[in-house]
Specification:
45% helix; two-stranded antiparallel sheet; alpha+beta; 12 helices; 3-stranded antiparallel sheet; 15 strands
Length: 364
């Protein structure tokens, strides 16, 4: 839906809008739950719905049902049909109720859309299963100009940062984002997916009206982005693994997952840091990554990930879709001009598809 709507935003071709409407209509049965929070899967032909069998208690996933609001709000705006925004906002309103969360501003990764219960003990993450929920609290506030949504975002992200932010010991003093699993924070490990947070914090600093909070966001943005850069340059391939382990001897790929999957999150943060600071280091870091990708990941007519960042020859023969949608797009934009998708006029969805911000100065 996001890709089709972005294509419509860029071309005004009604074909893309019609296809987005058709697809969104086929997704609507997923919202027919007692809470209004959608089920995780829907059969586009029959409307049958289900949740993932592997999720705790067959729960829905925060990053999935929490990253519909931008697309559905935009779809309602361009069609005049409120149903899309209404169902997406109703889902968000349901989980904002203080029903079993660890505290008022903290959101676990799994929620049962039938019973309305959060899975316990809680798992909380700015990476897998959580990431784009936090991103969309911010971006829907930017898109709509809603101050109440911005307040929810600020309160939520500060509470989550207090819970998950950690610093390495020794001389490196790196800020990293841990994860809480089964009620316990897992120390000394950070996942690549969490590296998007540097960019999210930078965008938070750019768009807040609170100077003190803006300084905190800017500080954390630079610190997290630096950590993710270190996770790249610390590997023989110059590319960051799925997860890194911190120790007194440095930063290393974990034994469990040393893959590089052409992921965009670190480069996404370079993009936002460049746009918000114009510090040349972020272009330099992006160019380092681009050269490493070209050297180690080029395979035939496409690009492959690596099975192990410690072995630059270990290509996996898989080109992920997000490599084109996000990784290359952010690399391109880093070296472009600021008026190419000006951040005061456009907001990128979680797959880097741009939407024009809707306000009086910037009509759709």
């Amino acid at each position: 839906v996001g890709g089709l709507l972005s294509a419509y935003a860029l071309t005004s071709d009604k074909l893309y809008l019609a296809k987005a409407v058709d697809l969104a209509d086929r997704l609507l049965p997923a919202f027919n739950t007692p809470t209004g929070v959608p089920m995780g899967t829907v059969n586009l032909a029959t409307g049958a719905t289900a949740n993932w069998g592997w999720a705790p208690g067959r729960a829905a996933i925060l990053s999935e049902f929490g990253s519909l609001q931008l697309e559905f709000a935009y779809l309602s705006d361009v069609t005049g049909d409120k149903i899309y925004n209404d169902v997406a906002e109703a889902a968000l309103a349901a989980i904002l109720l203080p029903n079993g969360r660890p505290d008022e501003h903290t959101f676990p990764n799994f929620y049962n859309p039938v019973s309305g219960a959060w899975s316990t003990p809680s798992s909380i993450s700015l990476g897998a299963y959580g990431d784009s929920f936090y991103e969309y609290l911010l971006k829907t506030a930017i898109y709509s100009g809603r101050l109440d949504r911005r307040k929810v975002y600020d309160n939520t992200i500060r509470a989550t940062a207090t819970r998950l932010h950690r610093r390495t010991t020794g001389t490196s003093d790196l800020l990293y984002i841990a994860e809480e699993r089964n009620g316990e924070v897992q120390p000394d490990v950070m996942y690549h997916l969490s590296c998007f947070a540097g960019g999210m914090y930078a965008l938070s600093a750019l768009t807040t009206t609170n100077a003190t909070l803006g300084d905190i966001y800017a500080r954390d943005a630079a610190a997290v982005t630096r950590t993710c850069h270190e996770s790249y340059i610390g590997q023989p391939s110059g590319l960051g693994p799925e997860a890194v382990q911190f120790s007194e001897s440095g930063i290393h790929a974990t034994d469990k997952d040393g893959r590089y999957q052409l992921r965009p999150e670190t480069i996404e943060s370079y993009f936002y840091m460049w746009r918000t600071t114009h510090d040349p280091r972020y272009r330099e870091w992006a160019w380092e990554a681009a050269l490493a990708i070209e050297k180690h990941c080029r395979c035939g007519v496409g690009y492959c990930g690596l099975k192990d960042v410690n072995n630059p020859a270990s290509q996996d023969d898989v080109q992920q879709s997000f490599f084109l949608a996000e990784t290359l797009k952010y690399l391109y934009l880093i070296f472009g001009e600021d008026d190419e998708f000006d951040l005061s006029q456009w907001v990128f969805n979680t797959e880097a598809h741009p939407f024009r911000i809707h306000n009086a100065q910037n009509p759709l």
